[in-house]
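Our preliminary data section would be incomplete without showing what the modeling component actually yields. Below, a chain of 208 amino acids is followed by its predicted structure, encoded as tokens that our downstream tools consume directly.
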Amino acid sequence: MNPAPSKRPIIYLASRSPRRRAILTELCIPFKELASSYDERAEDVADLPPADQAIKLASLKAFHAAKTVNEGIVIGADTIVVLDSTILGKPRDRDDAKEMLNALSGKTHQVITGVAVVDVIALRTVSRAEITKVFFKPLREREIYRYLETNEPYDKAGAYAIQGMAALFVERIEGCYFNVVGFPVRAFSLLMTEIGFDILDFIDRSGK
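Predicted structure:
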């Protein structure tokens, strides 16, 4: 039997992403931020398909963060952009961001977010990947230039933020919008159910 709502475990978010924090906050789900000591290494995911890469990186982030607490639920997440068979991470600089946006122009790509949830008391980890197709219109040089003048491209996989000015670039999507932002709500809810919790019991609207 699940514990009463008042006894629900603390949720920890092992991510520095402001988008993930914002989504949980909008859902009125209380959480605490928890640093993960894991540093991404290419060799940890070498030869894995993109979805498995995202899942493994999310799991490693959550696992390393979970070692610092004695109880609670720890969330890890990792988002990648895949164009054809090429994985686009965060751009190194302006030129790299420009190259990514030119590559995405007029094409369809996938946004894949791996989510991992660690139940610290039960010593159990569950994970899954959410995949969304994003269709970009052909981008004009002026649109790319103006976008590069903003702060949006430089800390985002694929060099764009769908919730920002880059919404102008997107013709349509197939799948979860929140996944493109960086935290697939549906996938998280399914993982919580898998470890025996109803996400509705965590929602606290008293602060709204």
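The CA atoms of residues 45 and 53 lie 5 Å apart. The chain has one domain: 5-201. Preliminary results of this kind motivate Aim 1 of the renewal.
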